[in-house]
Inverse folding.
């Protein structure tokens, strides 16, 4: 249970919580801003253009984040208002994971700046940005998996419309459970470590 980690290592636990909340909120904001750019004002009308984590994540997600270290967010959009149904849907769906990828790269740049003494930060800041880069790259890869209701599924189903029949089936939840319980999350971790090493930050 993540709550045990939070109690035994509160510095790491609080960093993890802060990074997850900021990363999910920015991920959802990216979806919302992308939807607005494609003609859908639903995120604005429903008050989701904000950094308020309660709005994006909800109390159940925030509570589970503290107890088991898992959280999620959502952004209301109306695809029927998009200017170009297929392109806009792909763009809006991909914007969240791409935001996480950009955040990961930004954190890498911050670490490099710290190590080159271009910024006056201490070792704790270096560690914070490394964790933030790792989490955001993990969110980037995880959300691009072609599993409903993840963003990757919405992208894949626009490219291969026959997949849309799986959107409301139990398949998605079963597949996500397999990812977390079947050891596939470790595979994602290896991929992220590989990405970090390619960027010169083997941890």
């Amino acid at each position: 249970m993540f709550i045990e980690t939070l109690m035994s290592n509160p510095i790491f636990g609080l960093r993890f919580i802060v990074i997850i909340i900021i990363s999910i909120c920015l991920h959802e904001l990216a979806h919302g801003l992308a939807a607005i750019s494609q003609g859908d004002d639903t995120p604005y009308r429903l008050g989701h253009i904000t950094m308020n984590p309660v709005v994006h994540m909800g109390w159940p997600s925030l509570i589970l984040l503290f107890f088991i270290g898992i959280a999620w967010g959502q952004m209301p959009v109306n695809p029927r208002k998009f200017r170009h149904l297929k392109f806009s849907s792909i763009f809006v769906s991909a914007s969240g994971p791409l935001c996480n990828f950009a955040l990961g790269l930004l954190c890498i740049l911050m670490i490099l700046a710290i190590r080159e003494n271009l910024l006056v930060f201490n070792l704790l800041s270096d560690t914070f940005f490394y964790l933030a880069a790792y989490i955001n790259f993990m969110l980037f890869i995880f959300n691009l998996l072609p599993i409903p209701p993840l963003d990757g599924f919405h992208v894949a189903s626009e490219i291969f419309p026959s997949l849309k029949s799986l959107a409301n089936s139990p398949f998605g939840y079963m597949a996500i459970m397999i990812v977390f319980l079947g050891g596939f999350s470790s595979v994602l971790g290896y991929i992220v470590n590989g990405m970090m090493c390619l960027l010169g930050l083997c941890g």
Notes: The CA atoms of residues 112 and 118 lie 8 Å apart. The radius of gyration is 18 Å. The chain has a mean pLDDT of 89. The first helix runs from residue 2 to 8.
